[in-house]
Amino acid sequence: MSPAESASPLRTASLWLLAVLLMAATVIYQRRTGPTHPLRGTVTVGGRATTYSLIRSEETVREARVALPDPGVPATLVWRRFPTQDPWTRQAMAPETRDRVGRLEVAGYLPKQPAAGKVEYAVELGEAGAALRIPAGDPIVLRYKGPVSTPLLVAHLSMMFLTVLLGLRAGLGAIFGKVAPRRLMVLTLFCLTLGGLILGPFVQKAAFGAYWTGFPWGYDLTDNKTLLMWLAWVLAAGVAGARLRRREVWSRVAVTAAALAMAVVYLIPHSLRGSQLDYNKVKAGTAAKDAVVTGR
């Protein structure tokens, strides 16, 4: 914390509160806009409203359960592997009692796929020929991933959340303070290095079979976003240096720019252009673990 900030406890507390609120907004945005977030909505069939939540991610160790509250009409799960020209498979969804209050649901199951394998699907409500389709537009794309140990995932996410919090706080400190907040800058870079460049690859390996699929070996957007953020904070640290400078303006500008770069990166939904199994390669005899591509 800079001497200028320590002289104003109220301002310091206000900036921390603002950083926390911005971090919370960022996390919620990432969660709700990512392609693995469940597709939610409400559909009315025969005068009866049904609220649904359809999954877009599952682990390779089990079939993906697609379920929604009993709509009172026949329900059919329609699916095929993605992206392929496989014929569509149609599966009648069966009634199941699933939730804590014993609410009746209808459910169908998508077959297990290798890591990064995808399945596109839709749900049809009603009799064939006059069924209502969910979603009305393009089918839902669900991606399978390998199981990631809870301690590893918690450690990775904790470091990334801290990165966002500390980075935003450093940026605010640079904007409203008189000197660059070097301690916060260093802590941000440390958390990003640990969470994004060390723990992140282990999460990626467990989920999709490769430690790093970004530049220069691939086009995974999540990996490349992490790399861009890291480079921005490394540049900020190089410009600011370890000690106060006679003209702090450039140090403040560098830290502010790194924080803004991080904010822009987090406006890009998580998991876009990520790992995807190429079924054509699998069909040609390539092992599934060697047929994963990125940037699609």
Automatic annotation (TrEMBL):
Organism: Candidatus Geothrix skivensis
Keywords of this entry: Membrane, Transmembrane, Transmembrane helix
Domain of life, source organism: Bacteria
Protein name in UniProt: Uncharacterized protein
Transmembrane segments: 12-29, 152-172, 184-207, 227-244, 249-268
UniProt entry tagged with the keyword Transmembrane: yes
